[in-house]
């Protein structure tokens, strides 16, 4: 039963939502990498809960403590370990539902997989709380990639059925990415913010929740990164993206929309500009044959509605094997899309760094 990922750089995630803390061990970082801890703190703050009325009231500062692998501002080359303490726990909220499996959570599957020994409080190891160490690891990967001028940024493409403008040839540039990274609610069309927020607050009042779509772009990856099959850019990215709780779909370029086009419309035709080969369109999202073609890598992820809602739901008392009704109490996000944005970027950074190392 492993919580490890990676080949050139190995990541081992640990902890539970209501345990002493959570963290990550990173093995394979080269010695002498200078890290900007202020930048890491900023990335952690983007994901942290309890900051506004759109998120859970659970307040966690996500203050991290580096236990090893870092000395005098630089990596040592030995295993790098970070620990994030859980400081705001209300574990009693979960005592009365420990045998009542919550719909769309990992309660039932976790109980079966771990023979009933899983920590059920707040979802335990299945909790979105575990995305905090992912963001930490991604913040390191982002800094390493930035030194190669590789930039990653995302925006909320949709909440429910409210659409934001999407990345295209006109707005897919470094200035757009920098603008998104500076936003608390990252949108290309910032006029949509109020509408989206109103829908989220309405769902909270109705004891319900919403999902959405996050669109991410990775700029300046050179052509030739990736492999045709098992280590393709798409498969490497998707493996990490699907490891994030609540992600139910991933698509690259036009994704499923490309099926509505003819080949003459879908194909990205080539041209040369200043000794660089480019494509007139980017319907394939910067990836051909599993390998980068030098165009921006563009993908989207589908984030399901937060499963913890206050409305009555049908479920099972697994200790009695009886049907029952459940009304979930406690502190939960009415929509996790906003807080998931830096998590998606973190996973993308980890995957691209691994692919570049493999190359």
Q: Can you describe this structure in just a few lines?
A:
The protein is of the alpha+beta class.
Would you give an account of this structure?
This protein has eight helices and 18 strands. It has a five-stranded antiparallel sheet with strand order 1-2-3-7-4, covered by helices on one side. The model has no long low-confidence stretch (mean pLDDT 92). Helix 1 (37-47) packs across helix 3 (131-146) and helix 3 (131-146) packs across helix 8. The two termini are 29 Å apart. It has helices at 37-47, 107-113, 131-146, 174-181, 193-205, 233-241, 263-266, 337-358; strands at 4-5, 10-15, 21-27, 64-68, 70-71, 74-75, 80-85, 151-159, 162-163, 212-219, 247-252, 270-273, 276-279, 287-288, 291-292, 297-303, 313-317, 322-326. It has one domain (4-358): 4-Layer Sandwich (Chorismate synthase, AroC fold).
